[in-house]
TrEMBL record:
SMART domains named among the record's database cross-references: MeTrc
Residue ranges of domain CheR-type methyltransferase in the record: 1-262
Organism from which the protein derives: Xanthomonas axonopodis
Enzyme Commission identifier(s): 2.1.1.80
Residues that hold S-adenosyl-L-methionine according to the record: 77, 79, 83, 116, 139, 197-198, 214-215
Biological process terms in GO annotation: methylation
Reactions that this protein is recorded to catalyse: L-glutamyl-[protein] + S-adenosyl-L-methionine = [protein]-L-glutamate 5-O-methyl ester + S-adenosyl-L-homocysteine
Protein name according to UniProt: protein-glutamate O-methyltransferase
Domain of life (superkingdom): Bacteria
The protein's enzyme class: transferase
Length: 262
């Protein structure tokens, strides 16, 4: 039976700097146990006897795959279908008002395992009635993106989906897939997932009518938050709409936006 490796304050501080420099994310001092729980397995994988050895591997920047693995383990964000429903009511209204032949484009900028992006797609498909739309989901975490691309979820995670949408857009697993749900193929094909670090230059995504960046700003300090938001907003169409979490605020950031709803 192995004993968990202890982490020193100095080592924890170095991990805080590493994840901040790599992803712009601030890990509070109260997250030490979380960090050890998630990264301890990497020490065992590499047969390291201290966190310093693992830090040296990360800080050398020679193993990009291991750096991404560490980022994946430290950036998992909880999400679920139709979280904060009023944003989806607004999305329905905006899509219903959309005119012209161009696709109505939406971006779930911190999509995690994809529930938000598929929720957007369900609303758009229902509202636009055959008119074109596109949904892009992005995340820094490659593991959750792999999950998102499958469109495959445990039934415990579907409570927020309206019953009519469950019948229309979801398939219930059978046999070995009993207890799971699959987003139906036609809707699944309307959603694209891409890897993006919001703290660095973004991939070429085009411009969007609506952008969701919700319940992630708690992980950024003030300056990083401002830089991330400005970077994301560079992809918002003139007159487009930007949604943040109900508990989040931009009031202290002096950004040129007009609030249209709480």
């Amino acid at each position: 039976m192995s004993t968990a490796t202890a982490i020193t304050e100095q080592e924890f501080g170095r991990f805080q700097r590493f994840i901040f420099e790599a992803a712009g994310i601030t890990i509070s001092s109260g997250k030490k146990a979380m960090l050890c729980g998630r990264l301890g397995k990497r020490l065992r994988e590499h047969q390291f006897s201290s966190y310093t050895q693992y830090l040296q591997l990360l800080e050398s920047r020679q193993d990009r795959r291991e750096i991404q693995t560490a980022i994946d383990l430290l950036t998992t964000n909880e999400t679920y279908f139709f979280r904060e429903p009023k944003h989806f009511e607004l999305l329905r209204k905006l899509a219903g008002e959309h005119r012209g032949g161009l696709p109505f484009r939406c971006w779930s900028a911190a999509s995690s395992s994809g529930e938000e992006a598929y929720s957007m797609a369900m609303v758009l498909d229902d509202t636009l009635q055959g008119r074109p739309f596109e949904v892009v989901g992005s995340d820094i975490n490659t593991r959750v993106l792999t999950k998102a691309r499958t469109g495959h979820y445990a039934l415990q995670r579907i409570d927020g989906i309206p019953q009519a949408y469950l019948k229309r857009y979801c398939l219930r697993g059978q046999g070995e897939y009993d207890g799971t749900l699959l987003v139906e193929r036609r809707l699944h094909e309307r959603v694209q997932f891409v890897h993006a670090n919001l703290n660095t230059a973004l991939p070429a995504l085009g411009s969007f009518d609506v952008i969701f960046l919700r319940n992630v700003m708690i992980y950024f300090n003030g300056q990083t938050k401002r830089e991330v938001i400005l970077r994301v907003l560079s992809n918002l169409k003139s007159g487009g709409h930007f949604c943040i979490g109900h508990s989040e605020s931009l009031s202290e950031l002096d950004i040129d936006l007009v609030q249209v709803a709480p």
